[in-house]
Design a protein that fits this description.
Blueprint lengths: L1 H18 L3 H5 L1 H11 L2 H5 L1 H6 L2 H4 L6 H8 L30 H16 L18 E5 L3 E5 L8 H11 L1 H4 L7 H21 L6 E7 L24 E7 L5 E6 L9 H7 L10 H17 L6 E2 L3 E5 L4 E5 L2 E2 L4 E8 L7 H7 L10 H13 L3 E12 L7 E11 L3 E10 L3 E14 L3 E10 L2 E10 L7 E13 L3 E14 L9 E16 L9 E7 L2 E6 L10 E15 L2 E17 L4 E13 L42 E12 L7 E13 L10 E12 L2 E10 L10 E6 L4
Length: 741
């Protein structure tokens, strides 16, 4: 029993070792068997029993183990071990040891590399396979990871267009900054291969061949350095995929079918508008473009209900040509009928007909209909407009039918509350607020109430405006206001009434030619700054006929970047003060030009010349004279600070004016390009004679900031006089809305 217990304890010590057989021992089992086999003599293999009897151990006598047995019998019994059950080794159920399986990530990476190698022709050396790459090819670089190679002698006038279109859609180019694996690169290369084929077919190359290969990875593919599946060469550079393109012959148009155009009364002109002919190369872009031209021609020539379907192109690969079919149903010609408002209490039919550039009986023209829709939106009275046509008389015997024009309107908010704040040296702070109802007197009669509160000006006024008065974009205006204004030149208290007609330009329809004319009646009580202390105020009663004609050839109404503008103002006036009657004419000429000098630079220049003819300076109210200086004149100088002054340094105004400005508007790229820096130089003078002069010219210079908004740029200018006189400020600050000119 004790001996048995001893064996059991020995097994307890051995079992953990057996259970913890390492994978390394299993892996070395085969090697160990071979080593043991080498130690066995040949005699033992030939006759194992004879060899065992002849060993030295076989000739020794058996040891006496009786003493050991008596010693074991004298040992105390082993205590029982509660709750411990140890199985005998031959009955232990040990879990079988399973061999390790390959790492799935390693396997997947190996498969990805193999597939990528095959798909990308990565076995090709950097110089390419025989015949795979085009010799002396014209190579276009598309991004950092794609090359397009074209034959040097191929006639391919669309090569630049093909490269540009491919570059805009290429997966390899779009993701060339990513750390791609070879599998990802392979997938994108397949997509781009298909893309090239599609682009070539757009231009008529239906038999093109494209061979793709790698540049930059070479013979390392499939080796240990490439098993990480990264698409990089040994020097760390990205692998470049090259597509060698053989465009093949270009297919041509064999036939063109344009529906029932041949049966229309204007077949020749309509066919000419579709500028594709049999024998022309197939070009899908041209087909789509000419379809649009045909649609425009049908709408322009009176076909109000013409229908043009989608083009169909049938390719014949044997003949290398295609048959183009464009389903067209002309539907006959029509003339315009009456315009009908579906919201007559808001904007009646008569008013809408005045806005339209077409009249009943005129041949239908879709361009005029589109223009009419935009003009109704430009009134600001509607948020949306839907213009539809319906036939009221069908074409008969070659005579045009008639279509009515129905206008469905959705009202826009009519009331607007606005505010404006500005500051400039010499004028101080100026706050303006207004309330307006744009349809207070339907249709299109606006009422506006406004007020100004400033450090040197206060004003209250009311304005009536009738849009589209007697003609489209012609505005009737009546304005009445009361104002007090105090400047360095005069102190005036004025009541004025002005009525006139103006040909208006708008943001939607910026017109080249504009004009205005009207009548102005005002009474003003003024005290000139040159008057002696205690002098009485002088009251002037003035009647004027202000006229203006202007041409606008610039590209933008609020922030022009190119073009030019010219304007001429003439105002014959009659002035009565203290029984003295004076007549004179006030004339002012303005011109400005805008020249882009790069993507982010616009040079702008302006000049202004003015004259008052017909009377002496003393007979002209101080508020009607010419002055210069300030944010809209010569920056760097204060408001009215340029020109003749009295002994006290107060401006007296003049009968002539000369002003010049030059500035560079430089976009900085800050805040999405909204911020610009504007260095500028201004010059100007005022003369007491009627002829404009350069005598006493004052020059100011500085720099400004512009912040571009949807309603025009916000302007901040800082200027300084370059030939400052005594009493002139060293710095002028100007903040307002809009460019200086």
């Amino acid at each position: 029993m004790r001996a048995g217990a001893g064996w059991a304890l020995a097994m307890v010590a051995l079992l953990p070792g057996q259970a913890l057989l390492s994978e390394r021992a299993l892996a070395q089992a085969q090697q160990t068997d071979q080593e043991l086999k080498a130690l066995i003599p040949d005699a033992a293999l030939a006759d194992p029993a004879a060899w065992a009897r002849d060993t030295p151990a076989a000739h020794e006598s058996e040891p006496d183990i009786a003493g050991l047995t008596d010693f074991a019998a004298d040992l105390p019994p082993l205590p029982d071990l509660p709750q411990i059950s140890i199985l005998w080794p031959d009955s232990a159920d040990l879990a079988p040891v399973e061999p390790l399986s390959p790492d799935p990530d390693i396997g997947a990476a190996e498969d990805a590399v193999k597939q990528a190698n095959s798909a990308l022709n990565q076995a090709v050396p950097p110089t390419g396979r025989d015949g795979a790459q085009i010799a002396n090819a014209v190579v276009e670089h598309v991004g950092a990871q794609v090359l397009l190679a074209f034959p040097p002698d191929a006639t391919l006038p669309e090569r630049e267009a093909i490269v540009a279109r491919f570059a805009g859609l290429s997966s390899l180019k779009a993701l060339d900054k990513a750390d791609d694996s070879l599998a990802q690169l392979s997938r994108r290369a397949r997509e781009d291969n298909d893309l090239i084929q599609q682009v070539l077919r757009l231009y008529g190359y239906y038999d093109s061949e494209v061979v793709q290969s790698l540049v930059g990875l070479g013979d390392q593919i499939g080796q240990a350095k490439a098993t990480d599946a990264n698409a990089k060469s040994s020097d760390g550079e990205k692998v470049v995929v090259r597509f060698d393109i053989q465009p093949g012959p270009r297919y041509q148009l064999a036939s063109i079918a344009l529906g029932d155009i041949a049966q229309s009364g204007d077949a020749a002109a309509l066919r000419t508008s579709f500028a594709l002919a049999v024998g022309d190369p197939i070009n899908s872009d041209r087909i789509v473009e000419e379809r649009g031209h045909l649609v425009e021609a049908l709408g322009h020539r009176g076909f109000a209900f013409a229908k043009v379907g989608e083009p169909a192109l049938q390719i014949d690969h044997d003949q290398r040509n295609g048959a183009l079919s464009l389903p067209v149903t002309t539907g006959g010609t029509y003339r315009f009928g009456a315009v009908t408002s579906l919201l007559p209490a808001y904007l009646n039919s008569r008013h809408l007909q005045r806005i339209a550039r077409f009249r009943p009986g005129q041949m239908y023209d879709k361009l005029l209909l589109d223009d009419f829709r935009k003009a109704v939106l430009a009134t600001g009275l509607v948020s949306s407009v839907n213009v539809t046509t319906r036939p009221v008389a069908e074409p008969v015997a070659g005579q045009p039918g008639t279509v009515a024009v129905d206008v469905a309107l959705t009202k826009a908010p009519r009331r607007t509350i606005a505010g404006l704040i500005g500051f400039s040296s010499g004028e101080g702070v100026r706050l303006e607020a207004s309330w307006e109802n744009r349809n207070f007197f339907p249709p299109g009669g606006a009422l506006k109430v406004r007020g100004v509160a400033g450090s040197r000006e206060q004003l209250a006024g009311v304005t009536f405006r009738r849009s589209n008065f007697l003609a489209r974009d012609q505005v009737l205006t009546a304005d009445f206001y009361a104002q007090t204004k105090r400047t360095d030149a005069y102190d005036a208290r004025t009541v004025s009434f002005l009525a006139g007609i103006e040909k208006q330009t708008t943001l939607i329809f910026q017109k080249p030619w504009v004009y205005s004319g009207g009548v102005e009646i005002l009474a003003t009580s003024e005290l000139a700054a040159t008057a002696a202390p205690g002098s009485p105020r002088t009251t002037y009663f003035i009647g004027a006929l202000p006229l203006r004609m202007g041409y606008d050839g610039s590209n933008d109404l609020l922030d022009p970047e190119r073009g030019f503008r010219v304007a001429l103002r003439v105002s014959p006036e009659v002035s009565v003060q203290s029984g003295t009657k004076s007549t004179y004419a006030k004339v002012q000429f303005d011109a400005s030009g805008y020249l882009p000098a790069g993507k982010r630079l616009v040079l702008a220049a302006r000049t202004r010349l003015g004259t008052i003819q017909g009377t002496a300076l003393d007979n002209i109210a101080p508020s009607r004279r010419f002055y210069a200086g300030g944010g809209a004149s010569v920056r760097g100088f204060g408001y009215q600070a340029v020109g003749p002054k009295d002994v006290n340094g107060d401006p007296i105004g003049g009968r002539s004016l000369s002003e010049f400005s030059l500035e560079a508007r430089v976009q900085t790229g800050l805040m999405g390009g909204a911020v610009s820096i504007v260095p500028f130089v201004d010059a100007g003078t005022v003369g007491t004679s009627s002829a404009p002069t350069l005598s006493g010219l004052r020059i100011g210079a500085g720099v400004g900031l512009r912040y571009k908004t949807t309603f025009g740029p916000i302007r901040f200018d800082l200027g300084t006089p370059l030939n400052r006189r005594q009493g002139d400020s060293r710095i002028g600050v100007y903040i307002s809305l809009g460019q200086a000119f």
